[in-house]
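Inverse folding, one chain.
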């Protein structure tokens, strides 16, 4: 088992090296994307323009021998532009399925919050069921299938708030900030050229990723750690039970998907750190990225300038690791 974990980590390290040839810094973002690959979870990346959200996803896709498509979401996008449609063949007198760009292993949904409700609803089936329905037929999507979406948090014109049901289907919501001055200096030197090199060669096969996913089930997670996960999620729904005075700041807490994803991601995080077992610290390290988009804040929280990250920090400090 230990040898298999070391082999997997060495393959993922090759992906990290590829990304470092193009991306400066953003270590946590890269680690979470690799974790999403291991755990088969969709990712929503939020950040202001120009912080390499699209570039890091494109570079990751190029480092994997897999099919990749990018869809630029706009207000006039139609569901058929994403999932495809039925096309009438006058010679054969029948309809044939013309598959859309969603039929790929990795799909970049760029500025996902710019598309209207019909497009978002078409994407829901793809994300949850891993299939697309055209007419009366359902077509399975390639395996593995991941949606990697980006959105801009500061621009409101021409955008649509994502439905809660869709947001909940993203395993992670990652926030990308500005680089520090030294990192930005490297970015400037690397990219301020007439023809900057921004492509990499594939270094990992899809079969390798699927093999690594099989290792997740072999990573041990103790029942005490599982109970800790349950308490963390329960604290988002019943904070008063843990001595937290934050109920007025929450409209509703995290869904059962949070419990599933915390368990899955804890084992994946242990695997990335070359461990055969998950520990409570793994939960603390990944909790914000899994919970921040599953806790709906009240108007009072927004008025007082509180963020979901601040509430999660209080929650993790209050919930006991060992059941009392």
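Residues assigned per position:
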């Amino acid at each position: 088992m230990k040898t298999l974990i070391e082999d997997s980590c060495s393959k993922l390290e090759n992906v990290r090296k590829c990304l470092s040839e193009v991306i400066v810094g953003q270590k946590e973002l890269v680690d979470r994307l690799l974790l999403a690959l291991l755990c088969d979870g969709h990712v929503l990346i939020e950040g202001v323009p120009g912080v390499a959200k699209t570039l890091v996803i494109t570079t990751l896709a190029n480092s994997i021998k897999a099919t990749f498509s990018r869809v630029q979401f706009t207000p006039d996008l139609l569901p058929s532009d994403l999932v495809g449609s039925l096309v009438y063949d006058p010679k054969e007198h029948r309809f044939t399925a013309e598959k859309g760009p969603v039929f790929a292993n990795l799909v970049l949904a760029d500025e996902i919050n710019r598309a209207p409700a019909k497009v978002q609803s078409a994407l829901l089936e793809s994300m949850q069921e891993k299939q697309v329905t055209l007419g009366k037929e359902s077509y399975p999507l390639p395996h593995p299938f991941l949606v990697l979406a980006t959105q801009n948090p500061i621009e409101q014109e021409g955008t649509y708030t994502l439905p809660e049901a869709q947001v909940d289907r993203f395993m992670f919501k990652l926030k990308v900030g500005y680089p520090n001055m030294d990192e930005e200096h490297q970015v400037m030197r690397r990219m301020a050229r007439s023809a900057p090199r921004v492509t990499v060669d594939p270094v990992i096969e899809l079969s390798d990723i699927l093999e690594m996913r099989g290792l997740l089930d072999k990573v041990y997670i103790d029942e005490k750690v599982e109970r800790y996960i349950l308490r963390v999620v329960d604290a988002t729904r019943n904070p008063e039970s843990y001595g937290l005075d934050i109920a007025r700041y929450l409209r509703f807490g995290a869904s059962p998907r949070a419990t599933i994803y915390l368990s899955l991601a804890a084992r994946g995080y242990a695997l990335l750190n070359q461990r055969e077992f998950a520990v409570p610290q793994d939960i603390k390290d990944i909790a914000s990225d899994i919970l921040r988009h599953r806790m709906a804040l009240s108007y009072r929280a927004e008025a007082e300038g509180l963020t979901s990250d601040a509430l999660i920090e209080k929650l993790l400090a209050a919930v006991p690791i060992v059941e009392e």
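The chain has a mean pLDDT of 86. Residues 2-20 form the longest helix (19 residues).
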